[in-house]
Amino acid sequence: MPKDKAVDPRVKRSRRYLQEALVSLIEEKGFDSITVLDLTKRADLNRATFYLHFRDKYDLLEQSMDEMLEQLIHTLAPTGNPEATSFGYNKPFSSIVRLFEHIAEHATFYKVMLGQKGNLGFTSRMLKVLREAFYQRFSLIQSDEEQLLVPKEIVTRYQSAALLGLIMYWLENNMPYSPHYMATQLTRLSLLGPHHASGLSLLYPPDPE
Amino acid sequence: MPKDKAVDPRVKRSRRYLQEALVSLIEEKGFDSITVLDLTKRADLNRATFYLHFRDKYDLLEQSMDEMLEQLIHTLAPTGNPEATSFGYNKPFSSIVRLFEHIAEHATFYKVMLGQKGNLGFTSRMLKVLREAFYQRFSLIQSDEEQLLVPKEIVTRYQSAALLGLIMYWLENNMPYSPHYMATQLTRLSLLGPHHASGLSLLYPPDPE
DNA sequence: TAATTTAAACGACATTATGTTGATTTAGCA
DNA sequence: TGCTAAATCAACATAATGTCGTTTAAATTA
Q1: Could you give the dihedral angle defined by the CA atoms of residues B169, B171, A74 and A180, in that order, rounded to the nearest 10 degrees?
Q2: A35-CA/C2-C1' distance, Å
Q3: How far is the C-alpha of A69 from the C-alpha of A65, rounded, in Å?
Q4: Fewer CB atoms < 10 Å away: N or C end of chain A?
């Protein structure tokens, strides 16, 4: 046995209960009107127990967000698989497919956090994660900065915000399409542009690779 | 003189002070940790006066947002000017230019509300306004629903989120470009798609109109 | 299995923000 | 100038916060 097995199961249990209580209560009444008493009632714990684990409700929120974003970053990291980099009108970027799969796996959390009663802090931090992923990928494909018609910074801002918009739409409507379908739409929009993302535009398609 | 001049100047003054106090305090400490006492101190009013005008701080926020979004909707409404509908790589949509001008005019408000310490409610309501504007415009240009490679709903979600992303970027960086420049970038991204928004892609440009 | 450790429960406390009320002062209006 | 209503002021009950000391219960270790 390696090192840190020293985590009291009672601690893990209490923390998990509180994190679950947080998500369900945000969904019900929004983060602002949640009290510590609400959380501990829902988690079936004493109010004092809360303060053994978290400084206040903001601390609980922070830690919950951090844990999920950690996973998100891991999901977006390059696989090192070379054939995963090819794509086309019907073959989406594999990392985008993985992204939608990750969201689906934690749909409850993301739907609440990105929804109407959700949290702007989470939204903007997630946006930053997506932006940096696009920025890195962009740097690999397009190294000649001077050749750009639109600045790199603006392109990546545009892409990451659009992606988050699609994710929100997908969650709001309870994921009516598969991750692969969503990633395909995104790839088409990226290659053709929203203005020509119709059948008509296929008369003069840009080279997919 | 027509009808409603019946607004006590003291009322207008108090409400304005409180709205200004709200924006500056959100910028400083975030909405959550603002108290009614904070607001009235900043506005140089008695705490009881606050309750003469607003139910609580959420009510104050609501009303401030509503007033600004009202103006935004008005800005986006079609002008009826026929020559304003033409556009190209260097000729942006005129309504988008007007949109950026409106944001610039109220930059303090938008920067705070859409920023890190801002408000998700405002963000999602603004997104909805933009989305509906895109949706309407889309319906005029593209009536044949079946011809679409990507569903209309998805295209408009994509566009509106991307636009809001660019607005946020622009505000965060204290508006380094002109409204016309920003609208031009957006138009290029819309016509070419983010993936080909580089000089290279001009070898096979899609027809701008 | 018994002993030890530590998390969780419980009751209590001072502090702070909330929303409301009644009485008084002050500013706008006719 | 006198009337009306807004703004001020002091006070109140209520509710949430964060902290403490003590007791109970669960997990780990000898």
Answers
A1: -50
A2: 42
A3: 6
A4: N
Tell me how far apart the alpha carbons of residues B151 and A191 are, in angstroms, rounded to a whole number. Answer: 15
* φ, ψ (nearest 5 deg) of residue B88: -170, -170
Cα dihedral across residues A120, A126, A131, A132: positive or negative: positive
Residues 14 through 43 of chain A touching chain B, CB cutoff 8 Å: 32
Identify residue B129 by its one-letter amino acid code.
Answer: V
Percentages helix, strand, coil for chain B (3-state, rounded to 5) are 70, 0, 30
Q: Which nucleotides of D are covered by protein (CB under 7 A)?
A: 5-11, 15-21, 26-29
- A56 contact to strand D (CB, 7 A limit): yes
- B4's CB contacts (< 8 A; 6+ apart) are none
Looking at residue B12, its amino acid is K
pLDDT tens, chain B, 209 aa long: 333 457 889 999 999 999 999 999 999 999 999 999 999 999 999 999 999 999 999 999 999 999 999 999 999 998 777 555 677 788 898 999 999 999 999 999 999 999 999 999 999 999 999 999 999 988 777 655 556 789 999 999 999 999 999 999 999 999 999 999 999 999 999 999 998 886 554 444 444 43
